[in-house]
């Protein structure tokens, strides 16, 4: 009788794979069609911080205190000659609840030089003093972007949309 020895290593790897797939966070899906997503984005486009002037549009939801959003912005500025001539990038400030960045976002939205304050906060170029913003228009912009993000299904930052499709 020829018995094959039990392979504990294969068993452990298989068990680990099954457990991680059971407890893994499901990948959230974009809730709207690309066409509906673009229509909805049109409603907040005027509230975006715009970088570049290329033909192709990219829409990105970011949180100023999110490390991944900060890395992404740093990469954009590092490659700005290539990227900003090919693309127009629309940045929408959208809070991740865990980051508690509403005060930062309101300061950026309320600022006369949004891009400068955004870079100060996200790239740490200066120590920006944050004010308590009590402006109804600024608060409305914050709320509208949040509503659109929720309808689209924005679940991470940066959340990148090209041609209406999340990437």
From TrEMBL:
Keywords annotated in UniProt: Signal
Top-rank taxon: Bacteria
Segment forming the signal sequence: 1-24
Protein name: Thioredoxin-like fold domain-containing protein
Organism from which the protein derives: uncultured Sulfurovum sp
Lineage: Bacteria, Pseudomonadati, Campylobacterota, Epsilonproteobacteria, Campylobacterales
